[in-house]
Amino acid sequence: MLVTQDQYTLATPFYDLWHLDGHIPEVRALLPGMLADVEGPVLEIGAGTGLVTETIAAATDGEVFAVEPALGMRAILLSRLAERPDLRARVTVLPWDVLDTDLDEPVSAVVMISVLYGLPPADRARVWPVLARQLRPGGHLIFNWRPRPVAEPGEPEPMGSYRVGRHTYEVWGQVLAATPMKTTSRLFYRIVHRGVVISEDVVDSESYRPEFAELAAELGAAGFTAREAPQGMTRWRLGT
């Protein structure tokens, strides 16, 4: 079995199928209300294939700067924009890592969905000042977070199954090790035809889930204050 840490490239064919069956519908329902008072451009960190980019653009009138370092994800995002001339005129796709983000002018809001969990603590503490520099005074930082129990290591379990034509696209997951702050997992991306696995890629990844108090301390040091947000989301204002 070949195991790799190139999780984004190998996940790309499964990405929309799996995420539309997961957290994306909730995020799409909550974001418009959280962006209702935003006037001006929005920066999206970790835009992926554009599942949330379209929601941001629909909820706001300004430019959207979509940062996505993975080539495969950007290709799908740009394909979405190719079919939407209205969005193509005001969505700029940037091939940066979050720590490399440096816009020409500040934005009114930063949206970051399901990126936090991939940031090791040392990198996470460096991210907040970078994002603060992209925001206008009084601008908002929005990202998803919710407390979760510590995962239990075990055997691979099915996480999603999707029929596309004659093939079934399956995602399986296995927790290899877990602490309150860090989980090491193995994901299996399988394509099945007539009950036979005809393609399988295996990816190991690490995720980090900080306590809210830890996040608040880091964000406070970068100049952010917490604001009210729906369950599962957080919102922070730059300044008091």
Could you describe the 3D structure shown?
- This protein is of the alpha/beta class and 240 residues long.
- The chain folds into two domains: 3-147 and 210-238, 3-Layer(aba) Sandwich (Rossmann fold), CATH 3.40.50; 157-208, Single Sheet (N-terminal domain of TfIIb), CATH 2.20.25.
- The chain contains seven helices and twelve strands.
- It has helices spanning 7-20, 24-34, 53-59, 71-82, 85-88, 121-134, 212-221; strands at residues 3-4, 42-45, 64-67, 91-94, 107-112, 135-144, 157-164, 167-178, 182-193, 196-208, 224-227, 233-238.
- A seven-stranded mixed beta sheet has the order 4-3-2-5-6-12-11, sandwiched between helices.
- A hairpin with a 2-residue loop joins strand 7 (157-164) and strand 8 (167-178).
- Helix 2 (24-34) runs parallel beside helix 3.
- The chain is globular, with a radius of gyration of 18 Å.
- The model has no long low-confidence stretch (mean pLDDT 95).
Give a concise summary.
By secondary structure, the chain is α/β, with parallel strands linked by helices. The chain has 2 domains: 3-147 and 210-238, Vaccinia Virus protein VP39 (Rossmann fold); 157-208, N-terminal domain of TfIIb.
CATH fold descriptor of the largest domain = Rossmann fold
The major sheet is characterized as: 7 strands, mixed
The topology string of helices and strands comes to EHHEHEHHEEHEEEEEHEE
- Give the CA-CA distance, first to last residue: 52 Å
Which regions contain 5 or more consecutive residues with pLDDT less than 50? Answer: none
Q: Tell me the fraction of residues in β-strands, as a range.
A: 35-45%
Mean pLDDT: 95
Assign the CATH class of the largest domain: Alpha Beta
CATH H-level superfamily title of the largest domain: Vaccinia Virus protein VP39
Number of strands: 12
What is the total number of structural domains?
2
The whole-angstrom Rg is 18 Å
What overall form do the CA principal axes indicate? globular
CATH architecture of the largest domain: 3-Layer(aba) Sandwich
Numbering strands along the chain, what is their spatial order in the largest sheet? 4-3-2-5-6-12-11
Structural classification:
alpha/beta
Helix amount: 25-40%
Question: How many individual helices?
Answer: 7
Organism: Nonomuraea longicatena
Protein name: Methyltransferase domain-containing protein
Domain Methyltransferase: 42-139
